[in-house]
Specification:
Layout: E1 4-10, H1 14-23, H2 28-31, E2 37-42, H3 58-69, E3 75-80, H4 88-95, H5 97-103, E4 108-111, E5 118-122, E6 132-136, H6 137-141, E7 144-148, E8 150-154, E9 158-160, H7 162-165, H8 172-179, H9 183-191, E10 198-210, E11 214-217, E12 222-226, H10 229-239, H11 248-255, E13 266-270, H12 273-276, E14 295-297, H13 303-318, E15 329-332, E16 347-350, E17 362-364, H14 373-380, H15 396-421
Parallel strand pairs: 1-13, 2-3, 2-7, 3-4, 7-10, 8-10, 14-15, 15-16, 16-17
Antiparallel strand pairs: 1-12, 5-6, 8-9, 10-11, 10-12
Amino acid sequence: MNRSIVSIAKGCDVDMMVEDVLANLGGVKTLIKPNSTVVLKPNAGHPGTPEKSINTSPAFVAAVIKAVRQAGPKQIILAEASAIGYDTIECLKSSGIYQAAIEAGIDKIIDIKSDKDLVNFQVKEAKSNLTTVLLPRFLLEADHVINLPIFKTHVSMVFSCALKNLKGVVQDKVHLQMHQADLAEAIVDLWTVIKADLTIADVIRPGEGFGPHSTIPVDFGCLVAGKDPVAVDATVCRMVGMDISRMKIFKSAQARGIGVTDENLIEVRGKKIEEVYKILWIPYLGGFEQWPEYHIYAENACSSCQCLLAYNMERLKALGEYDKNAGITLVLGRKTEIPKGIPPDNLILIGECLKKWRDQGISVAGCPPIEPGIQYAIVDRKSYYPQAPDTFGFDLEERKTKEEIVFKDYIQKLCDKYRKKS
């Protein structure tokens, strides 16, 4: 099997880091053809200012634009599709990426959600429900697609980096379809029909803790690049102390021949992993036994609902509501039956898979549900339907903002404790 080359650069000057990380791969002029069309795909899925480490660093995006320009391309396009329910341009602007790209001389910025010129692709031998996918024509016709993810923890996939970032090339309908499936397999299915030919991962200030919204930024100061997205993800995971054997997406990708994870098959250039190693707290790897005071039925649940439950259980602890509500039964995932004999106000039914039993308990609707929805249902003993926020009885954003301050402080203490213990 061929070896994959992964480049690691570390420093304080992002322009110099981009130059270094590409030099280890042969230099930008060997990677980008002159007079070509280049599409840059950052991560700008949610609103958030640069210091929050929710989205790719705007300074890094600008540095990549300037570096790519040196290869003499015909056009450089920045393209993104934000997460379900968010406006792409708003996310690009709040992240700082929009303005940074304009100042760096980007030729065009495209909101993939608004693109009407789509091509329907069949996913051969799909392992998820993603048997067909609509993709923007401009992306398929580009000479180069450069993937610019930020490394962060993620409620739907444990972590987000190279492989997951390509999910942002589809529109909301496909986003939703992928969440309703085995998300790891759906992401790999997507990579079989559309690939980035180069990934440069932003590990400058990666986000630990309960991402993507409640990230705790960590000064790391690195970029990681390579043509093999699996090798890039595996290398970054090793840099932050993650056990890749516990991550299903790596097994799925290797089974489809997309890349390699074996250290013996990855040639690391530039900085060595040992030189930059810093452990991060990735809480989504823990099992449901972390919350024995609650009765959790999670068989056949998708990764989104499982990780959302973990996120909400820790929010209960942070807000002093965990012990008060001990003994509640939580059910998620596709079921042929649900537990019997549970009082309706002690039975929380999570997600659309359980909608036919909504009259038997408290429902948290949505696919996936709104992020604090499980917590609200437990504390308020009331069903929540994201399509009807006027029925909540409170201002959702105001409540989330107030609680987020407390939750962030709680997470920071857990992160510090974890790193000290490790």
